[in-house]
Amino acid sequence: MKNKLLAISFLPLLATANLTAQANSPSLPAKPKTTVVAAKEKSKEKSFVSDQRPTTLSSDEAINIAVYKAANRGVVNIAPVASAEDYILNHTAEGCGSGVIISRDGSILTNYHVVEDSEHVRVTLWDGSSYHGVVVGVDKQTDLAVVKIKPPETLKLTIIPLGDSSQLEVGRHVFAIGNPFGLDRTMTVGIVSSLGRTIPVAKGRLIKGIIQTDAAINPGNSGGPLLDSLGRVVGITTAIYTNNGLSSGVGFAIPINIAKNVIPQILDYHRVLRPELGVEVTPAGEVGLRVLKVAKGSPADKAGLSGAKIVLYDIGAGLVLQKPDLSVADIILEADGVQTNTVDGLMSYIESKKPNQVVTLTVIRNGRAVKIPVKLIGGVSD
After folding, report:
1. How far apart are CA 266 and CA 62, in angstroms?
2. Separation of alpha carbons 118 and 113, rounded Å
3. Cα separation of 88 and 107, whole Å?
4. Rounded distance, CA 203 to CA 141, Å?
5. Which entry of 222, 247, 298, 381 is annotated as an active-site residue?
6. Which of 98, 113, 214, 381 is catalytic?
7. Class for domain 59-149, per CATH?
8. What does each of the 382 residues of the chain score in pLDDT, given as a tens digit?
């Protein structure tokens, strides 16, 4: 570098010396004018800088990467098909949801609303291979379902361990992995925003104890895992609060502890058995629930509860109008002294009991309060 600097410094001096010598030497013939062309400027430096230093991960980045590497291959894409034959013939079925592999024999946990009333599904694994899946059973009241595939014995499935959702706290980091818009095994990161939320399901029932998170959840995420920082499933993503169908930063997941109670029954009985009354009820106003229908042979029927009666009205021309007479229907006020002003309140109380237990209902019948003992039996969850 030193020699280069000296050479550059001396160039102007040498040029000056040559010109002076020519001017003082008349014996030398005049030389023709020459044009001195300046040397080309150095090419401009490139606009980017390459940094070759080794990458140093932050602690958060290291956890994110570790969770994804451990769990992503245990998340599947699920698409309902009409039948086993349709699975073979239809190769264009698009996934509508996600699922979590929970056992080495091919059991997969997902949402009920992902499979709906289908008996057969197409399950696509991380490597793009797909398998015929059978819906083992569902539980509409918790929006959960179990699907089973039979992979080759040589295929080693990635199992995601189940955690303990009761240990969650607001502020804990959580990770959602699923297939939003068909973009397989996408991970989003957030925190537990709240606990103990309640969201509605079918027939006026509610799912309680729901986890709220700001991890982005979009259509296709349903049925996928919500993971803690150790890569354990703490929830099953199920819904979002939105006005346009897209993530609003308010997502919901079913606590895995609820699923732990449901999974064994689905695997053993293909359904969930809960104590039931066998009644269809509706709010009677500010107080109580009016009995609309009593299932024949149910605990309520055996105990003598009365629902609405169907009255036939002849309106002429051979036409008969059917209309329920609500005036004869019992109104349930309490169960074991606990007020029951909502459908979910009554059903949740009944489900907290065990088959063969007796619940005493306080009902209004013909303007009088009557206490009716009802012996519960195990019923099939809708």
Report:
1. 37
2. 10
3. 21
4. 9
5. 222
6. 113
7. mainly beta
8. 444 433 333 333 333 334 344 444 444 455 555 555 555 555 556 678 888 888 888 999 999 999 999 999 999 999 988 665 555 545 444 558 999 999 999 999 999 999 988 999 999 999 999 999 999 999 988 999 999 999 898 899 999 999 999 999 999 999 999 999 888 999 999 999 999 998 887 666 678 889 999 999 988 999 999 999 999 999 999 977 766 666 677 899 999 999 998 999 999 989 888 888 889 898 888 889 999 999 999 999 999 999 988 777 777 777 877 777 888 899 999 999 999 888 878 888 888 888 889 999 999 998 899 999 999 987 655 5
Catalytic residue at 173?
no
Both structure tokens of 214: 């700001």
What residue segments make up the domains of the chain, in order of their start?
Answer: 59-149, 165-264, 274-380
pTM over 0.90: no
Return the half-sphere exposure (C-beta side, CA atoms, 13 A cut-off) of residue 215: 33
Of 273, 181, 164, 169, the residue nearest 224 (C-alpha): 181
Q: Check if 59-149 and 165-264 are the same fold.
A: yes
113 included as an active-site residue: yes
Are residues 160 and 233 in contact, defined by beta-carbon separation less than 8 angstroms?
A: yes
CA 290 to chain CA centroid, Å, is: 35
How far apart CA 237 and CA 221 sit, in angstroms, is 7
Query: Catalytic residue at 336?
Result: no
What's the gap between Cα 289 and its chain centre? 33
Residue range 274-380, CATH number: 2.30.42.10
Q: What is the CATH number of domain 165-264?
A: 2.40.10.10
Determine which one of 98, 120, 139, 143 is catalytic: 143
Residue 376 is encoded by which pair of tokens?
A: 């519960």
Helix (H, G, I), strand (E, B) or coil at 135: strand
Query: What whole-number distance in Å separates Cα of residue 292 and Cα of residue 308?
Result: 5
- Distance between first and last Cα of the chain: 85
